[in-house]
Model the fold of this input.
Amino acid sequence: MEKKYSDFYKQLRSQIDEFLSKKNFKYAELLLLAPDLFHLMVKLSLDSRVPREKKVKLIAAIAYFISPLDFIPEAILGPIGYMDDLAIAAYVLNDFINNQNMDILYEHWAGSGDILAQIQNILTVADHYLGQGLWQRMKEKVNQARL
Done:
């Protein structure tokens, strides 16, 4: 999994950088977090200290990132399609904040800025860029991810 995830991370970073070099996108700052959140979820899913029930949601969120079939498809919209993936990642990672697993979260965070602030920022604006109805359906799907 390590090699495949590394290749996806690099491809994702490259696609977003190229897209943002050509476009003025309102949520560019958030979109730039997508590769780092993906990296964080992979690292957490491989960490033996993370409880199994949390790993299930992490793996579901990782699969959502990689899947070409999701609510906002990257294949059609390009990197803008990662905005729903970003929201799902933040929603799943927020569970670590709520359950006092912040040390593990900080340990694996390789991005810039404070991970807690980044997650809260994404969750705060998710309704705006996804629409409340879509965002609610997405959260319900994540909550259904079980053992």
